[in-house]
UniProtKB/TrEMBL annotation:
N-terminal signal peptide: 1-34
Keyword Signal applies: yes
CDD domains referenced in this protein's UniProt entry, alphabetically: LPMO_AA10
Organism: Actinomadura logoneensis
Name the UniProt record assigns to this protein: Chitin-binding protein
């Protein structure tokens, strides 16, 4: 990134005066939009950012940006585009890679603490966690038919703003073998949510 350029106060004042005199609106700092990604279990977006998985495209620089329409599962990203939040820029996250994404080992039915890193917090409705059904096909892009559509863990925020480090402890579902956990962060005051897919193995 090139260094920021600074101007002497008098010159800045002249620039502002010129813009105002031209009848153009002055730009003000807009509030930050919400962004974040799951760190435990690590999401596909985070694995790309860390370089654990290669050939991910631009998501490697923006693991926090998997933002798409909220309302899942009734609305939200289309089937086959859920991990990328329906955004074609992040399409490599939907590629199952033959079922070869690194998977985090979990214990069926055990207590587990899910964690997020937020780069910009926002008023929040809830964080919800879904898991794939038994017999799902890890070599196919994720669809609603492959998921248990009732979250096994839901933490409601009622519009409160979460901290930048978020932790939710709950009981893992009774599963065995390879699965995927879909974490959905529902934003309260926009029409969007954040979607994070984590490959896991219950042994």
């Amino acid at each position: 990134m090139p260094p920021l350029r600074t101007f002497a106060p008098r010159k800045s004042a002249l620039v502002i005066a010129a813009v105002a005199g031209a009848g153009l609106p002055l730009l003000s700092a807009a509030p930050a939009l919400a962004h974040g990604y799951t760190t435990a279990p690590p999401s596909r977006a985070l694995l790309c950012q860390q370089g654990t998985v290669r050939n991910c495209g631009p998501i490697q620089w923006e693991p926090q940006s998997t933002e798409g329409p909220k309302g899942f599962p009734a609305a939200g990203p289309a089937d086959g585009t859920i991990c990328a939040a329906g955004d074609s820029r992040w399409a490599p996250l939907d590629d199952p890679r033959g079922g070869a994404w690194p998977a985090t080992s979990l214990t069926s039915g055990a207590s587990f603490t899910f964690t997020w890193k937020l780069t910009a917090a926002h008023a929040t409705t809830s964080f919800r966690y879904f898991v794939t059904r038994d017999g799902w096909n890890p070599t196919q892009p994720l669809t609603r038919a492959q998921l248990d559509l009732t979250p096994f863990l839901q933490v409601n925020y009622g519009g409160r703003i979460p901290p930048y480090s978020v932790a939710h402890t709950g009981t893992l579902p009774a599963k065995h073998g390879r699965h995927m956990i879909l974490a959905v962060w529902d934003i309260a005051d926009t029409g969007n949510a954040f979607y994070q897919c984590s490959d896991v193995n219950f042994g």
